[in-house]
Design brief:
Elements lengths: L7 E3 L18 E2 L7 H10 L1 E4 L5 H15 L9 E4 L11 H5 L2 E5 L6 H7 L2 H10 L5 E11 L7 E4 L14 E6 L10 E3 L11 E3 L3 E3 L1 H4 L5 E3 L6 E5 L4 E3 L8 E10 L9 H7 L9
Parallel strand pairs: 1-4, 2-3
Antiparallel strand pairs: 3-13, 4-5, 5-6, 6-15, 7-14, 8-13, 8-15, 9-12, 9-14, 10-11
The protein binds 2-oxoglutaric acid.
2-oxoglutaric acid binds next to strand 6, strand 14 and strand 15.
């Protein structure tokens, strides 16, 4: 009998309308962590995001990618957090390093299994910036993910607010950090978001292509994109509406995403409060 862990699969969803992802331009940012000052912090609170274009150097990006690829290749038998595209299920045993990466949708909860990825999530300058953005509160990393968009196949992550997925009490500040490991462009599915709309609070989410904001709420609104070189990052509020389109290019798009909340707040034991704010049940709404 094999000792290999059971594999997880994710089923595809329909293609999105092109009009959902037509950004007006690129978002505001700085080059390095050292450039974050009071104006940048004020911008984060006003607009709900901040870009750091050269947060990590090429050695840090290379180490993170190597750690990610080792997990995808199943080198750590204790790690079961790789989610493959269900379409690739039958082919998996035959795939080599490059092809196997292109059969992955995402990885979750890996930092305790892979020191090279833990290092980036606990990078001192990253933690310092997150502490500041949380209002000088010590951060707790409560979710870590890697999102893979294979060339041509990488699927959309429809528009949503991340807090719609978390059971933190309403009002808890949550900072998301999205780190490009490949160059992320509009064509291969970089992040797009609605600046300032974190201030309008929780939005109703519906189960459609995913747990998402209704497309009709997004169409006609002007988004901004965060194209990034490898090692660039986006800080964003847990209430900022954002999404990523299908990868229509020939280039792979691999990214890390970490979420931090103040260490002195704990998640609620159930999803009642979350669904009261983000769910549609009991409300006179349709999508
Ligand atoms: O990287 C992506 O494609 C989407 C990430 C995201 O917004 C999420 O997983 O919440």
């Amino acid at each position: 009998m094999s000792n290999a862990p059971a594999l997880q699969f994710d089923h595809g969803s329909d293609m999105h309308a092109a009009e959902l992802y037509q950004p007006a331009g690129a978002g505001f940012g700085v080059e390095h962590f050292e450039d974050i000052g009071p104006d940048e912090i004020a911008h984060f609170h006003e607009q709900g995001y901040l870009i750091v274009r050269q947060a990590f150097n090429s050695a840090e990006v290379k180490a993170a990618l190597e750690g990610l690829v080792d997990l995808i290749m199943g080198k750590n038998l204790d790690f079961t957090g790789v989610m493959f595209e269900s379409k690739a299920q039958d082919m998996l045993p035959k795939l080599g390093v490059e092809q196997r990466q292109d059969a992955v949708r995402k990885l979750m909860f890996f930092v305790e299994f892979e020191p090279r990825l833990k290092a980036i999530s606990h990078h001192p300058q990253l933690i310092q910036a997150v502490t500041t953005l949380l209002g000088e509160r010590a951060p707790h990393l409560f979710q870590d993910m890697a999102l893979i968009k294979p060339p041509r196949l990488g699927r959309e992550k429809p528009w949503h607010q991340d807090n719609a997925y978390f059971n933190y009490p309403q009002g808890t500040p949550v900072v998301g950090v999205w780190i490009a490991l490949d160059e992320a462009t509009i064509e291969n599915g970089c992040m797009q978001f609605m600046p300032g709309q974190h201030k309008t609070g929780p939005r109703i989410h519906f189960q459609r292509r995913d747990w998402q904001i209704c497309d009709t709420e997004i169409l006609g609104q002007q988004s901004v994109a965060a194209p990034l070189k490898p090692g660039g990052l986006l800080f964003f509020s847990g209430l900022l509406p954002h999404g990523t389109p299908h990868n229509s290019s020939k280039k792979r798009r691999r990214a890390l995403q970490f979420h931090y909340a103040p260490a002195d707040v704990t998640q609620l034991p159930d999803n009642e409060e979350r669904l009261r704010h983000f769910g549609s049940e009991g409300k006179d709404v349709t999508c």
